[in-house]
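User: Protein folding is very new to me. Would you mind checking the protein record under this note? It all follows right here:
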Amino acid sequence: MTIASLEPVLFHARQNRQAIAGLVVLGWEDVTAFVAAAEAENMPVILQAGPGCRAHTPLSILGPMLRYAAERASVPIVCHFDHGYEIKEIEEAIEAGFSSVMIDGSKKPLSQNIEITGRVVSIAHKAGVSVEGEIGFVGYAGTKSSKGTKPSDAVKLVEEIGVDALAISAGNIHLQTDSSAIIDEKLVQKISQKIACPIVLHGASGIPYQVRRRLAKSGLVSKFNIGTELRQVFGNSLRDTLANDPDLFDRLAILSELHTPLFDATRKVISNLK
């Protein structure tokens, strides 16, 4: 299967009243479980390398690693560079082989967000790479509060620039460890009715399963970013594995025990959005 770009994958999902999971990758163990789960559900998936992942592993390794998995998968796989803040790192991501990039100008004034996002669209589209923008700030659990997206700002950014997907803030929060986020579904609907491109919700681990499914089946949200939820599965499974066998020390033996629980949890996430 060829590596997919974000735009056609999300367009097809929205047409079919589905949403695609954007899964946060931290290592190869995540990649194998995520791709296997996508294949089991016969659904595309988006493998995302965010700032945490990039702080641990260089882009020059991440790009080829994700492409290697995508090229051998039986379903479309988007290799996505998540939360880029500067033009230089976007260019490096494209050079490394990512098929999709996200420029996060949400902390900037609207005019500056439009300016930097527009530059990224120009650079990326020339390389055949999709672009996700963000308007409205999605906060972080326990630290920075969210700032909801103004529909008029979303319209202005999309109409002036032509991003392929738009991340918005509607009650979603990054790094939330329980599913207690209260999503302003009327705001999501209002924005969806006013812009042409698919909508993305970051911090979707904090969104209840039934709300994710409702937003997907209504065609309002086409991409949900999932990180914390699956990292919790990985961490809990790791603790259980070592508790059950305190003498276990071989890294490969330990990691092999984590594949199935991570695969099962990922399959549940993907299936819920179909």
Summary: The longest strand covers residues 77-84. The chain is about 50% helix and 15% strand. The two ends are 20 Å apart (CA to CA).
